[in-house]
Amino acid sequence: MHExxxxxxxxxxxxxxxxxxxxxxxxxxxxxxGALAGVVPDALRFSFDLAAAGTLVAxxxxxxxxxxxRIFCDLCNAEADLPNPQSFVCPICQQPAMRMVQGxxxxxxxxxxx
Amino acid sequence: xxxxxxxxxxxxxxxxxxxxxxxxxxxxxDQAGVRVINLLSSPGxxxxxxxxxxxxxxxxxxxxxxxxxxxxxxxxxxRLARSGAAVRQIETAGMCxxxxxxxxxxLEGWHLADFDILFIxxxxxxxxxxxxxxxxxxxVVLMAVTEGEDKPLKYPGTFQWANLVLLxxxxxxxxxxxxxxxxxxxxxxxxxxxxxxxxxxxxxxxMAEWLAWVEDL
Lengths: 114, 217
Description:
- The structure holds 2 protein chains of 2 kinds.
- By secondary structure, chain A is α+β, with helices and mostly antiparallel strands.
- Chain A is built from 2 helices and 6 strands; from the N terminus they run αβαβββββ.
- In chain A, the strands form 2 sheets. Chain A has a 3-stranded mixed beta sheet with strand order 2-1-6, covered by helices on one side. Chain A has a 3-stranded antiparallel beta sheet with strand order 4-3-5, with no helix packed on it.
- In chain A, a hairpin with a 4-residue loop joins β3 and β4 (78-81).
- In chain A, α1 (3-20) packs across α2 (41-52).
- Chain A is elongated, with a radius of gyration of 17 Å.
- The mean pLDDT of chain A is 95.
- By secondary structure, chain B is of the alpha/beta class.
- The chains are: A alpha+beta, B alpha/beta.
- The A-B interface holds A 1-2, 5-6, 9-10, 12-14, 17-18, 21, 23, 27-28, 31, 35-39, 85-89, 96-98, 100, 104-114 and B 3, 5-18, 95-97, 99, 127-128, 130-131, 153, 156-158, 160-161, 188-193.
- β6 (106-113) of chain A pairs antiparallel with β1 of chain B, so a sheet runs across the interface.
């Protein structure tokens, strides 16, 4: 359960970005969370409300885009999304997937401000 | 009439502050010529026992040090210090993982160039620590044979994060009815190609192979 630590970092990042943009309030945050980021969206939402209190981000909506694990398969010379991160196998050729290109991200993409 | 919201692009890692500090740490480690290993496992998998033996054996030919993270108490640091290595405890006061700034804070007063290899024993937890880069060169996950062969499937992100998987407490494999083939299959399922070394700090099995991995890092 490190979602509170993550939420505090998120709030600080968003608060700084909002100030830099000259905003006095944040309406929504758009996040990308990878399937292997180790962060549970529901736990993050819960922690976020606590962490946001008293900042420009207080009361803002958290829009989370959950992104699947994506691998690059050398044999197929192509990227593919894994249907299941318990099985690192290329969904096209069924060979072991050695290279992950997406799936650990924990990114603040943008803010909506008035 | 209300105006529609304006979109402000950020596109930054939420943990970018930690990432930045980790980058600084890695540069400091590289300048000092010290190789750093981040060691992770669930509580009770035998990190401290393995590290005790590792420090003792490596200490005969390298200058070794360890930072030990724990929620509370400095028991592990006191145990490890018996090996003669330089050891410091990081008490996280309840936090479930180490962050780069804690590592940085606990390096103060140490002359890094005095060390060849630094082990960072993370807090016993298989999820949270993997989000935090500590500036390490090698990431090792320890899994005890008593934990159940399906651990990799339950924590795919952690096993995917590792550069090496150590099976520990091999001397207890029989009592635990450990299915080595299933464990290897499950590790390979979530991280094809990751090296696996089966060890027992008690009997010494696999220690030479593990120490060689450390020295080659």
